[in-house]
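Q: What does the assembly look like in three dimensions?
Context provided by user:
Components: two
Sequences:
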Amino acid sequence: MKSIEISIIKNKVMELIAEASFNLPPDIRKALEKSREFETSQRARDVLDLILKNADIAAREKLPLCQDCGRVYIGIGIGPCICIPDPEKLNAQLDLAVAAAYNNNYLRKSVVNDPLFERANTGDNTPAIITTFFSSGPGLSIDVVLKGGGSENCSYLYMQNPSMSQEELIGIVLKTVRENVTKCCPPVIIGVGVGGTASEVPKLAWKASLRKLGCPSGDQRYRELENMILEAVNSTGIGPQGLGGKTTALGCNIEYAPCHIATMPVAVFMSCHSTRRASAKLLPGYDCKEL
Amino acid sequence: MKNQLIKLETPLTVEKIENLRAGDMVYLSGTIYSARDIAHKRMVAAISRSEKLPFDLEDNTIFYAGPSPTPPGKKSGGIGPTTSARMDSLTEPLLEKGLRAMIGKGNRSQQLKELLHKYKAVYFVALGGVAAYLSTKVESIKPVAYEDLGPEAVHELKVRDFPLFVACDIHGGDIFKEPFNC
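A: Here is the predicted structure of the complete assembly.
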């Protein structure tokens, strides 16, 4: 058994929040650069250039890529033979890490305590949304996602009939994108969840919207569907920032799961061009103590 | 008609904006005010009670934005537009008080576009998600009202050549609906 102190996890979470806030993930930068070459409209090229220029300034000046510094999602994956002493303290300690990272890095605090009545800002961007799970990989994995409200608002759940065809699925995604995408900073990454349950499918879509670009579905049939949706979305002409062009989405990812015979849950999520995500691993021998 | 690049200074009078067409690029300089959801709700409530507003709306410009804090040694933190459609149903009372321009991101409702024609006002879009870049166009920023709202407070911004696109003009033109002249 190997133990990882909470303080080490906290420090890593703080580092990852800063990294995600200031640095555009390399896969997104690469996709933007590729789209830049592919665009024929001057305005679309100008917009993509500015997104890339923004990434340079953010990294150099340590300014957030987006003023909406997001809600914090933290995923902790516990690998084989890894233990966290005082696990009951983990969530509260991670919230302290979030508060410190948001204060120290001059990030915007965008969380209110109560949705309907006070809507008072909690002042430190907590609580974070923390998920802990067991994983088969070695060590302890930490995934941090900072998700802004604009793209969060473009998240949809549809309970379809089991007879839904692939064409109908493409139609649902296309309609959702057409009606919403200008509000969530295109070019976006489209995440589609299919199957599971009404409570599970948004998590599939969420995961899909955060999957790295260039990592298509392992299933050939879903891979083809991902390509068909991406092509359909990019044929709309909506373009970067909705100002016209060929790049409305940088990618489309699908995640799927078994479902009940009577159901066909579908969820569509979108991640903006400044999708902020960063991950790290704490490994035995480096960050762990032998028990 | 080919879209143009136009430099404008606030305050924006009807004369300055009536010839703008959807798709034109504008570099805006001068003073603008940030206000988003809850600030709108408060201003609309203040108007209905005939109370004084935190700033005079006549020929003024509202930026739907909540900045990130200004780090030491910088003129502004990250700044950029939030989704404008959320303010659609809260805008008419402000237009009645002379609001001339709004800056945000994304499309607006048909009803809002009709209000732009009725009250002679313009809707600009700024690029979303490029907060570090846009902060270089801000010369100063400070909260001036509703400070309890934190990032949602009304801030006064002085901007220089702030890059915008005319999204909805007073003639019914809509950048999100029309073919692009670019």
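Follow-up: Residues 6 and 26 of chain B are 5 Å apart (CA to CA).
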